[in-house]
Amino acid sequence: MNGGTNRQRAGPRRLSALDRKLLRDLWAIRGQAFAIALVIAAGVSIFVAMFSTFDSLDLSLRTYYDRYRFADVFAALKRAPLSLIPDLQQIPGVARVETRVVVDVTLDVPGMTDPAVGRLISMPAGEAPVLCDVFLREGRRIEPGRPDEVLASESFARAHRLGPGDTLGAVINGRRRELRIVGLALSPEYIYSIRPGELFPDDARFGVLWMERRALASAFEMDGAFNDVVVKLMHDASEREVTAGLDRVLDARYGGVGAIPRSLQTSNWYLSNELVQLKASGMIIPVVFLGVAAFLLNVVLMRTVTVQRPQIAAIKALGYSDSAIAWHFVKWSLVVALTGGALGVALGAWLGRAFTQMYTLFFHFPVLVYSINVRMIVGGVAIGLAAAVLGATGAVRRAVELPPAEAMRPEAPARFSESWAERFGLKRRLSQPARIVLRTLQRHPGRVALSVAGIALGASLLVVGNFSLDSVDVLMDTQFNVAQRYDVAVTLVEPSSASALDDLRGLPGVMSAEPFRVVPARLRFGPRARSVAILGVPSHPRLNRVIDAPQRPADLPPDGLVLSVALAKLLGAGHGDSVTVEVLEGRRLVRQIPVAATVDEYMGTNAYMDLDALHRFVEEAPAVSGAFLQVDGAETERLYRRLKATPRVAAVTLKHAAIQSFRDTYAEMVRKIQAIYVVFAAVIAFGVVYNTARISLSERARELATLRVVGFTRGEISYILLGELALVALVAVPVGLGLGYLFAWLVVVASESEMFRIPLVVTARTCGYAGFTILIATSLSAMVVRRRLDQLDLVEVLKSRE
């Protein structure tokens, strides 16, 4: 019997009176609560999606680098004997050294008219290299004694539907050879497979081929020599000291062009910059979304407290403490936030998987596994709860500070006065409902301001969600129409005399040619240094112009360096400062050159000089590294055939291919991500407008019912309530556009990297879209509210206390 009593006492605890009230209140405004939960879910989902994608990419990257022994330092040179390897190994901090032969050649791919560039990299036959090993996706490794066998990068092979057993032509040291593909491979060195000097990958026109060391060295007369070094550092080694040691050993005698750390290796640099932008987006956008959610929660709770004044007074009179009442309203927010957080985590995990899959468009991993950990889930829910607590603070304080005696009395009615429109003589032209609308708005400026702010925040999210599409369009137009006005860029194997320009002008279909000279150099300013390629072009370039944002062509001064703003920031240098320039070719001159100007470019970290000034600086006769060509479209096939067969040509860059590559990779990814943002922003905008309309209805239900009783029609009371909503929305839209511009600026600043600087562009199209969406949301909310007005129970509403 005692046992039965104990079991009864241990039964489920009944809900307290405040908890039952909480559930009833939430059910009564379930539409508004769900709308706020959706706003929280949007912010949490973007946070979870972005950071889980970041974690997945970062984990995959570190695992790939470790497993396939990615190097820490890289150095290229002209030629050095293998007998130099012991000197390299003795540099303090060096753990392992791998020497290679690396050469770019022109490829003739079956079925492809355009010339392609192949990077031939030597590797030991039948075994894995010490550093920078490859992951064999298909086929087998190269076997000894088979000089024409190669492994091909998977992305290049897939772009041309090539596989083991297929062949392709290559111009190797002036001779055409047929290379046989025996396997498809991936390398940690080419996760982002791109030629140096370009900005976007082009898998169809750039491929990496691994060839037997002896065969490749023999083809380029590099027997017993090497022209590329990769180094693995000891655990506690100084990266800076090792790169300096490599530069000392691989000095001018061997044509070293400067060692670089892993952070500046082309593939890793692009990938790191993309991760920086991803992380920035994962911080800024959710903060904006959750800020809107906190604001909405505050507005709903503040008005709930206003409506429930008598109930709060009764609860206090029954002996409930201030802390119990405060916790009651905090729980109201937490229930909504937990619902939104749970939805956000689930949606964020789905989006994160989709984002991770999207990155395989231009990042090549053996396995890119999406993972989401408990820390990410807890973090997503926690920021949703934080937004809820922040949004509840004002309402909780108001509820706690409300004296019971005062709460028992209804709020004092607003003081009557004519509206400003009536004072200006419009009274006779305004209908009675219109005068009521204007007077109500004027009597409650605080309430109107909150409604305007809520809808404006919804409009601002639409601007933030859509502006990147405008920015990408401007980025493409600036890069490919304003700056790059050429059709083809040809780079020679070695800098050649000015007569090479005449040879290029004589190629089939070439209408005009503009020379350029590329000089590898290391720029130093104080303790900071950066290896760059100084591009020398004519002082008034026509085919490849230097552009200073917004889209202003810049002429190069007769002397001095012109740096991109991004490079100037990295060096800490500005206009008029003298930068130390160490030339990494020829006589290795070291000179001080003033910064003559900076240009605000959208892409890369670039340095420019007037072509004649560059010749004077390196103390050489006029020479060219290549030329930008304007080509007759009808002659392109003949031109490409000639370029493929020209041994002096190292690389050919086609503008139309670069545009297509940009559209297929970066632009496509931005558009997909922004489409998701736009959908979220539209949902939130509707939630904001819907909440505003429902709150207004709940506050004014008694007043509107009274008007119906005294003779106003349903249409007239609808006009009163919905007219207020329409005027608030009209005022809110321009405010929201201004806020959207501010939030877009924050996104641009946070996502700026060395690789890209997104231009801040908010077009009339984006503003029109935001305004139109708010109009649609207002119309849909008005339909819902009108339906509720039609179903208004006049007797029940009028029986309720003020």
Keywords:
802 residues, elongated, six-stranded mixed beta barrel, disordered N terminus, 53% helix, 23 helices, alpha+beta, six-stranded mixed β-barrel, 20% strand, 22 strands
Helix and strand topology:
Layout: H1 2-9, H2 17-28, H3 30-67, E1 73-81, H4 85-89, E2 94-100, E3 102-108, E4 116-123, E5 135-139, E6 149-153, H5 154-159, E7 167-172, E8 175-186, E9 206-212, H6 213-219, E10 225-233, H7 239-249, E11 260-261, H8 266-307, H9 309-317, H10 322-358, H11 374-401, H12 404-408, H13 420-426, H14 432-443, H15 445-483, E12 488-497, H16 499-505, E13 510-525, E14 528-537, E15 546-548, E16 552-554, E17 561-564, H17 565-571, E18 578-583, E19 590-599, E20 607-610, H18 611-618, E21 623-631, H19 636-644, E22 649-654, H20 655-709, H21 714-751, H22 764-790, H23 794-799
Parallel strand pairs: 4-9, 6-8, 14-20, 17-19
Antiparallel strand pairs: 1-10, 1-11, 2-10, 3-4, 3-7, 5-8, 6-9, 7-8, 12-21, 12-22, 13-14, 13-18, 13-21, 15-16, 17-20, 18-19
Helix pairs in contact: 2-10, 3-8, 3-10, 3-11, 3-20, 8-11, 8-15, 8-20, 8-21, 10-11, 14-21, 15-20, 15-21, 15-22, 20-21, 20-22, 21-22
Task: Give an overview of the whole structure.
The protein has 802 residues and is an alpha+beta fold. Among the domains are: 102-208, no CATH class; 444-483 and 656-802, no CATH class; 510-631, no CATH class. It is 53% helix and 20% strand. A 6-stranded mixed barrel has the order 3-4-9-6-8-7. Strand 18 (578-583) and strand 19 form a beta hairpin. Residues 1-11 have low confidence and may be disordered.
